[in-house]
Amino acid sequence: MKTSIVPYLVKRFLRFDNEQPFIFLSALLAFLGITLGVMVLLIAMALMNGFDKEFKKKLTIMNYPLTVIPKFYGAVNEDLLIDLESRFPELKFSPYVQSAVMARSGTKLEGGYIFGINFKDEAKVNSVLGEAIEKSSFSKFDVLIGKSLKDEFNLYTDDKLMYIFTHVEPGGLSITPKIKRFKVKGIFDSGLSAYDKAYSYTTLSSMQSMLGIPSNQYDGIHVFSNDPHADIVKIKEILPVSVTVKGWWEDNVNFFAALELEKASLFIVLMLIILIAAINIISSLLMTVMNRRSEIALLLSLGATTAEIKKVFLYLGIVIGVSGILAGIVFGMGGLWILSTFDIVSLPKDVYPTTTLPLDLSIKDFILIVSGAFVIVIASSFYPAKKASEVDILTVLRNE
Fold it and tell me: Which keywords accompany this UniProt record (predicted)?
């Protein structure tokens, strides 16, 4: 038998049959289902990766790549800062003093933290603050606040904002909290409402004065690193036993674990769309086998091998499935281009770190989606192809 018989039969069986239109309709539905599944998977994975990347970017900035902090006792001091700067000239360091506070404006209260920093050093380790610091100059008891806090309290530059410190001091027969008014001199916008509302920044001398801390003592040191996972190991090796260093990811382990679980769950659920479409491939091919039983039997009697018959129906399923995958890739990429080019969807800034849809389709996810869909198509084509090759020639020809 000529080898050209296989592609010929594939083309013939793919044609619309007026006597059996439902077979063609079933194949068309399988094609559309796989197209839709691949398209939705590509867009969904790009969105999940985009949000994951955007959250990591914002959290890395506001939580700082690395932070040197004391353990259960001891303190971070100027000697340690100088030692770190000399040993790691490629890194940027910014010492800080912090305190939990209540910000008050009129009758409104908002809890958070105020950091005493050297603004010049801080601008090197925090790009968000760096932009705000460049626009203003800060002196003692001036404060830099987040946009969300500014909007909530309706504050403007040079307005006064009261901070109630958690540190208390004796006052006669009772103890009273420390209260100080700071002048608002700048506004920063990190894109994360929780940080914009909770974090405030003032000069290092202001906080040391308020908390009674010596000028050479700090609560910690913010560190900027392009490769924090590698640098954290190097820094740990030279730190004294009373001091440790933590990475930004250590405070967000559960959050990113939840994102990964959500991404995996979404992938599995959306892959079920392709699996459902594959059932249509199975039903379409089985109906084709039942409808073409006499032709298959005649081909076998004329010398066609069972392997060739199996190949015909395997190719039929592959043609339907692969064409659906290719169409899904085209529509998926087109959808990603439209979403990234045009501002179709606008996100609330107080909830998400960006107002536009972040899209980032990785090569790994693309290969996983395409290969997963292809495996499903091959698996769904195998059973009907096997049944076609098992047609009993004598029984079919006798009944026909």
Answer: Cell membrane, Lipoprotein, Membrane, Transmembrane, Transmembrane helix
